[in-house]
Amino acid sequence: MFQLTLCILKPDVVRSPRLFNEIIQLILQRQFIFVKSKRLQLSRERAGEFYQEHQQNFFYSRLVHYMSCGPISCHILGRENAIQEWRSILGPTKVFKTIFEAQDTIRGQHGVTDTRNCGHGSDSIATAQREIGFFFPEFDMKSISKYENLLV
Ligand code: RTP
Ligand code: MG
């Protein structure tokens, strides 16, 4: 099924033009369409809101601090099975898992810690809708079929 997902490239990636370009090229190679892109810096409040489901987790303040420490790059990606495909290219959240089973992923190659792990990807259709709305409130989710037709 053709899907849209939200991809965030985290501050460490945006800070490094070489790594940023490498990841953009990889996304294109894997046949994703960049539907919309936006570079922005989150305030602590907005970062906290985005990750509010993790409010009770020990890593919440570390995560909010990190995600608001510099610009991030947000993308609506479109593709067949985009949600799962982007998460599998990204690799596991936990760095230790990438050592044994997912070296050949973005996080496996470039992840530094469980927080500084290069990117974010929506985890379900409902989450993707909510997260796309958070960063791209002007985007009409119903226009999805328009992007599907761009695929060859
Ligand atoms: P994501 O949402 O980024 O795709 O990753 P996920 O679902 O696989 O990870 P989740 O467990 O939902 O974690 C949410 C965010 O918190 C960061 N995190 N930091 N120990 C830590 O410092 C820690 N653990 C998780 C993750 O990098 C993710 O951005
Ligand atoms: Mg998550």
UniProtKB/TrEMBL annotation:
Pfam families: NDK
EC category name: transferase
Protein name (Swiss-Prot/TrEMBL): Nucleoside diphosphate kinase
Lineage: Eukaryota, Metazoa, Spiralia, Gnathifera, Rotifera
GO molecular function: ATP binding; metal ion binding; nucleoside diphosphate kinase activity
Binding site for ATP: 10, 59, 87, 93, 107, 117
Requisite cofactors: Mg(2+)
Domain of life: Eukaryota
Catalysed reactions listed for this entry: a 2'-deoxyribonucleoside 5'-diphosphate + ATP = a 2'-deoxyribonucleoside 5'-triphosphate + ADP
Keyword Transcription regulation: no
Keywords, comma-separated and alphabetical: ATP-binding, Kinase, Magnesium, Metal-binding, Nucleotide-binding, Transferase
SMART domains (alphabetical): NDK (SM00562)
PROSITE patterns for the chain: NDPK, NDPK_LIKE
Enzyme Commission number: 2.7.4.6
Family designation: Belongs to the NDK family.
Record flagged with keyword Kinase: yes
InterPro entries: NDK-like_dom (IPR034907), NDK-like_dom_sf (IPR036850), NDPk6 (IPR037994), Nucleoside_diP_kinase (IPR001564), Nucleoside_diP_kinase_AS (IPR023005)
Active site as annotated: 120
Sequence ranges assigned to domain Nucleoside diphosphate kinase-like in this UniProt record: 2-143
Biological processes annotated in GO: CTP biosynthetic process; GTP biosynthetic process; UTP biosynthetic process
